[in-house]
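Box 3.1 A note on notation
Throughout this textbook, protein chains are presented in two layers. The first layer is the amino acid sequence; the second is a token string describing backbone geometry. Keep the layers aligned when reading.
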Amino acid sequence: MASSAQTPASARVPYLPVQGVREQAWIRCLQAHARDLNAPQTKTRPTSPQWQQIVNEVLVPMLQKSIGSNVNYAAVLAGGKANLEKILNQI
């Protein structure tokens, strides 16, 4: 085994007396990611052929309108619903 004097500084791994704790934290992190990825809200996009149109013409404009001061959120949602129904009724 090479001594630290022979190993370049960039290649040295810092000595951690409690590596088990670090590994356990890493495993907990992976478990949290797996739990998040399996959550219901991470399902794939709907298979509707109009999905991209809905994103472009309903969701993005609603988000843009909802940013700012004195926003009437009920009106933004009502407008979004009307636009969504218009798109879905084009089928």
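The CA atoms of residues 16 and 22 lie 9 Å apart. Residues 19-37 form the longest helix (19 residues).
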